[in-house]
Design brief:
alpha+beta; 4-stranded antiparallel beta sheet; elongated
Length: 166
């Protein structure tokens, strides 16, 4: 009598079940991956502002003069508070920098220590030659979400107090 050899293989039902499980797992994983990317982009926007503050502090200490971060439409400028005659003639100072703000982004400077009403407060954040600065709160609103950070006057280091992703 001939022997019948049984071959092992997956049934169509088993294959369909495996594909269904893979689709469910990917459906759960993809939104969380998007959230991680959004959080990464939010942190990068914060780090850009913090880096600019660090450069302002460093310039103030090394050059022993006041440097200012100035909020303008579409950008934040790092510049000396009082340019020298040579800098005025050249049109730029060593250490000046610009941080572009996208059209879909908004970065707001809040200066709680100022005595002026908020609408009359200039969008300037000074860093004195000692390296200290005025305490400020910086708020960001962009396509990925929002964050708010408090910058401390002695260290100019920021601390994120609130972060929300869209």
């Amino acid at each position: 009598m001939p022997r019948i050899h049984k071959t092992s293989a997956f049934t169509l039902l088993e294959l369909m079940l495996a594909v269904l499980i893979a689709i469910i797992v990917m459906g759960i994983a993809i939104p969380s991956m998007r959230g991680l990317n959004a959080e990464k982009r939010l942190r990068e926007s914060y780090e850009k502002v913090e880096t600019l503050a660090y450069k302002a502090q460093t310039n103030a200490i090394t050059q022993q003069r006041t440097w200012v971060l100035v909020w303008e439409k579409g950008q934040i400028l790092l510049q000396p508070d009082a340019p020298t005659a040579e800098e005025k003639q050249a049109g730029t100072a060593e250490g000046e920098e610009t941080m572009a703000i996208g059209e879909d982004e908004k970065i707001t400077l809040l200066r709680p220590a100022t005595l002026l009403p908020p609408k009359e407060t200039p969008g300037e954040w000074p860093f004195w030659r000692s390296g200290t600065c005025e305490p400020v709160t910086v708020a960001y609103d962009g396509p990925e979400g929002t964050w708010t950070a408090i910058f401390h006057p002695l260290t100019a280091k920021g601390e994120i107090t609130e972060m929300k992703m869209r």
